[in-house]
Amino acid sequence: MARADTLARAKTLDRPELAYLVRFRAADGTTDMELTWAELARDTVWVTEGLRGHGLAAGQRALLNNSGFEGFWGHAVIGALRELKVTYGIAEAMGWDHRRTAVFHRELNPHAVIGLSAETLEGLAGAADIAEMFRSTSVVLARPAALPVLRGLGVPAALITAVGPALALECPERRGGHVNAAEWRIGERDGELFVAAGEQRTSSLPETPLGIAGRVVTGRCACGGEDPRVLLAEADPSLSPRS
Ligand SMILES: [Zn+2]
């Protein structure tokens, strides 16, 4: 009973608005930005719609590759999976944890793998046929450097990546990673991306160059979404200004 009392009392306490301090690499060095619980809740709603667009639904299973310091978007993805009633397992996105990815992939037989990294693929390549492994996975959302590898193996993966403090999530049309226009203003200058807090964002961020080579496409996507899309040179080397 003491526990129930404690929980009831805890509920009446004020919670701080700040959920995370998001630290990201910008063109001019490391930058910090606040993330409130209200913003995180809105990000979760947006990611939920994005994953629903990939057909994720109740009763499916997913594997999330995410690192602790990426909690600012990992938390939104986890919240979305819970909302969609998708059972999930989490493995580190760093290469040293590739065996956990292999085990989860075998045991969970996931409908979706979210956040697959080039380092994980490299680690798996020695011990598994990664083409066979991921061609049998319905939805593969991969990081920029993993995309050319997967596409080269015939795996129709889509992009998921942080762009500074924002998340880019590609829809099944695979025409660039959507960024939530209500929360962020994303653009390009001289072939590199910049980001700023959007109209709904209460935490402030002035226009910040990210030093990420890429392009931004605006206008309605074939998926019906109006959010702008980022095309990254790392994910599609043909976009690189130096190639
Ligand atoms: Zn789209």
Keyword list:
eleven-stranded mixed beta sheet; alpha/beta; two-stranded antiparallel ribbon; binds zinc ion; Rossmann fold; 243 residues
Could you give a short description of this structure?
With 243 residues, the chain is an alpha/beta fold.
Give a written overview of the molecule.
It is a single chain. Helices cover 30% and strands 31% of the residues. The chain contains 7 helices and 13 strands. The protein is globular and about 55 Å long. By secondary structure, the protein is of the alpha/beta class. A hairpin with a 2-residue loop joins β7 and β8. The N and C termini lie far apart (67 Å). Zinc ion (ZN) binds at residues 171, 173, 178, 221, 223, 225.
Write down how many β-strands occur, each being a DSSP E stretch of 2 or more residues: 13
Radius of gyration: 18 Å
> Which bin fits the share of residues in helices?
25-40%
How many distinct domains? 1
Biggest sheet strand line-up: 4-3-5-6-7-8-9-13-12-11-10
Sheet-strand content, in percent, reads: 25-35%
Task: Note the overall shape.
Answer: globular
Spans of at least 5 consecutive residues with low confidence: none
Order of helices and strands: HEEHEHEHEHHEHEEEEEEE
Helix count, per DSSP? Answer: 7
CATH topology: Rossmann fold
CATH superfamily: ANL, N-terminal domain
**Small ligands present:** zinc ion
Oligomeric state of this protein: single chain
| CATH architecture level-2 label | 3-Layer(aba) Sandwich
Please summarize the sheet with the most strands: 11 strands, mixed
- Provide the CATH top-level class: Alpha Beta
